[in-house]
Amino acid sequence: MHTPPTGLYEAPLPADWPEPEALGFGRILGPYLAHAQHGEDSGWHAPTVSARSALSVPVAGGGLQYGFSVFEGLKAYRDADGRIHLFRPRDHARRLQQSAQRLVMPEPPEEVFMTLCQLAVQVHARYVPPFGRGSLYLRPTLYAEEDALGFRPATRHRLAVAVTPCSDPLPKSQRLWAETELIRAAPGGLGAAKTGGNYAAGLAGQMRARANGFDDVVWLDALTHREIAEAGTMNLFVQIGDEVVTPPLDGTILAGITRDSVLRLLHADGVRVSEHRITLDELAAAGMAGQLGTAFGVGTAARLVTISEISDGTTAIRFRDTGLAARLYERLKQVQEGATHALREWRVAVPTPQNP
Ligand code: COI
Questions:
Q1: What residues make up the domain containing 220?
Q2: Please, are residues 44 and 112 in contact by the beta-carbon 8 Å criterion?
Q3: Which of 53, 123, 178, 252 has the fewest Cβ atoms nearer than 10 Å?
Q4: 74 CA to centre of ligand 1 in angstroms
Q5: Of all atoms in ligand 1, which is nearest to the CA of residue 302?
Q6: Stretch 101-129: mean pLDDT, rounded?
Q7: Residue positions of the PTM N6-(pyridoxal phosphate)lysine (predicted)?
Q8: Listed residue (270, 261, 276) closest to 345, CA to CA
């Protein structure tokens, strides 16, 4: 275990610290960053912890100029005994490597990723909400750090982990706007990489959804504009008859870790699941035939959100609450928080002085 510098564990919580239910998401940032630098010749340097304000990003570097930056989002939860665990960190490490590879950046070894995540949690242990009342969200970010404008792979990169304590997301229902003009990703593009460019490409769609009175956007495929791909920050699932369908990992959508967890839970429950393309028209036809059940979106930040409607402004597809999403939400929460023995292998303990 890498031990953080003495004293950091004791970083006091601010006096006006909110109740866990009022933390929201991303509003309060932990005061430290766990980080490690990579040099073209020197490889990965030893992980360390600094004040968040001590690191700066070069304005003329590839991170800001050309978007050479990839990231992850994972959560740490406290179990009923107060112990802290990271949820599926090795899977997040692997996905970061895949994103880095696509953007020609150095792939952080799993041990570096794990050490940085552990350090980030350890120095912010007091920021992890109590059992069942939220989580600490970690944002490992790999970016080009060389101060140079040439368009080529950078010679220096850094992986830094920021954290934000957040509330347990509520399983509230959303109405989604299917965006038929703008696109998020095309075959062969960056869609599967967790990189800022995808989010930058997506914000206008989210704004259009809101302007039309919806909660979030559903991205459609770039070629026909009819196949559902993913929502703004979530993978999608729809229940049709006795089957649950989710779009396939064809390189245009993010390979969500929560998507994978939900697939495992559905299989374990004996639910028929399939990963295949599905169009708005097929959904509308299934609705007309009375075959549409629940729809839901899943993601690390969002966990699992029920979808009541998807509309492209012409056709409104309405889903029926069969109770499946609520059951899955509870199962997922139990697994993530260690309230069940099932799938314990997904949780990696983070030792702290309080819980060595
Ligand atoms: C996550 O769910 O981890 C994400 O990255 C979504 C984020 C844009 C809020």
A1: 174-337
A2: yes
A3: 53
A4: 9
A5: 2
A6: 97
A7: 194
A8: 261
What percent of the chain has pLDDT above 70? 97
299 lines ligand 1 (CB under 6 A): yes
Residue % of the chain over a pLDDT of 90: 93
Q: Model's pTM, two decimal places?
A: 0.96
By mean pLDDT, which of 132-136, 249-253, 310-314, 349-353 is the weakest?
349-353
Phi, psi (rounded to 5 degrees) for 291: -100, -5
Q: Which residues contact 336 (CB under 8 A, 6 or more apart)?
A: 75, 77, 87, 135, 347
Residue 1, judged by CB atoms within 10 A of its CB (0-12, 13-18, 19+), counts as exposed
Backbone angles phi, psi at 3, to 5 degrees: -100, 130
Mean pLDDT of 150-164: 97
Q: DSSP class of residue 86? A: E
**243 pLDDT more than 80:** yes
Give dist(CA 237, CA 245) in Å, integer: 6
In-domain check, residue 352: no
> Are 267 and 273 a contacting pair, CB within 8 Å?
yes
Residues 125 and 196 in one domain: no
Confidence check: pLDDT of 14 > 80: no
Q: Ligand 1 centroid to 27 CA: how many Å?
A: 14
Q: Can you give the CATH number for the domain in which 257 is found?
A: 3.20.10.10
User: Which ligand 1 atom sits nearest the alpha carbon of residue 194?
Assistant: 5
